[in-house]
Amino acid sequence: MFWTISTLTVLIVSVVSAGILIPQILLVAFRKELFDLPDERKIHRSAVPRLGGMAFAPVVFFSISLVLGASIALGYDTLYQEVIGNMQSVSLVISAVIMLYLVGLADDLIGVKYRAKFVVQIICALLLVGAGMSLSHFHGALFIDTLPFWLAIPFTILLVVFVINAINLIDGVDGLASGLTGIALLFYGVIFCLLHEYIYALVAFSTLGTVIPFFYYNVFGKAEKQKKIFMGDTGALTIGLLLCFLSLKLCTCDTDAILSANPLVVAFAPLLVPCFDVVRVFMRRIRNHKNPFMPDKTHIHHKMIGIGLNQRVTMISILLISVAFSSISIFLSSYMDVNLLLLLDLTVWILFNMWLTKKNRTNGIK
């Protein structure tokens, strides 16, 4: 009962706190004219603030700290003991989140070179490794069971940097990045609760609580009424890092206790759509002798808009695709070899994108 109340409380506190903070960020952004201006590669046509992510890390830390302090004041030390028992992980993850949050904020305000952002992301990945989040067990994926420690560290760093940028790059349509991450956070929160890993469930639900009000302002807010906002790099980088933290932790858990599915698939299935999309886009740019880190309009949401769908339908469609991909992959991992499942997922994704590309060319879009 204690953990149920704590989880619901942290979610409610996050929703209310972000719901109060985001309008204040909007007010400051419009008064100081801190806008994301439209250009040829962007879909929006109005000046919109991109500082919504400013609310994310402070609200997450505030909601968890408030629930922790309140539980101690009421004579319950269960949460306190959990935090103390995971102090190494907690302190290093907080350090990583603050570091990446500040870099994202600087990028949204004055701009930061992508090389500098990569260096900081690598440092943050090292902090996650120090927190005990290295991916050393592949559970049969790529025909690998266990990686030696010296190889698991660089692979984990590469994976963290990749996922963070995948979340950042999928943020191209109203509600898409927040919707995809919201679904993933809800999934992780529920799974951690079922596994009795409650401290990680609190992180997932507190982060979800910040995403919900942002989703409302991002999707339903009107720029002409000064109610619309983007998450910017501050939000995308912060959420991406927290998703890495939760997914890597889930890889170390015994998911057989609640699901007879491959733990690696359970951990990363909610991130398949943004990860598959960024791999395809990067490979296309490299094939065309372009810088893979320079933005263009070849992401899945651009292609779906190119076939005539509006932003809202595009967003909903991709969210449904993500839910379907995640659910089916987790289900099939109980019955299929993980490598065959990965091959099947890639084949379906490639065929779907080939169909979208063909439809775009028919409409005269490259």
Lay out the secondary structure.
Elements: H1 2-32, E1 35-36, E2 48-49, H2 56-73, H3 78-85, H4 87-109, H5 114-130, H6 149-169, H7 176-194, H8 198-220, H9 232-251, H10 263-268, H11 272-287, H12 300-306, H13 311-332, H14 338-362
Antiparallel strand pairs: 1-2
Task: Provide an overview of this structure.
With 366 residues, this protein is mainly α. It has one domain (2-362). It has 14 helices and 2 strands, in the order αββααααααααααααα. It has helices at residues 2-32, 56-73, 78-85, 87-109, 114-130, 149-169, 176-194, 198-220, 232-251, 263-268, 272-287, 300-306, 311-332, 338-362, and strands at residues 35-36, 48-49. The protein has a two-stranded antiparallel ribbon with strand order 1-2. It is globular, with a radius of gyration of 20 Å. The model has no long low-confidence stretch (mean pLDDT 88).
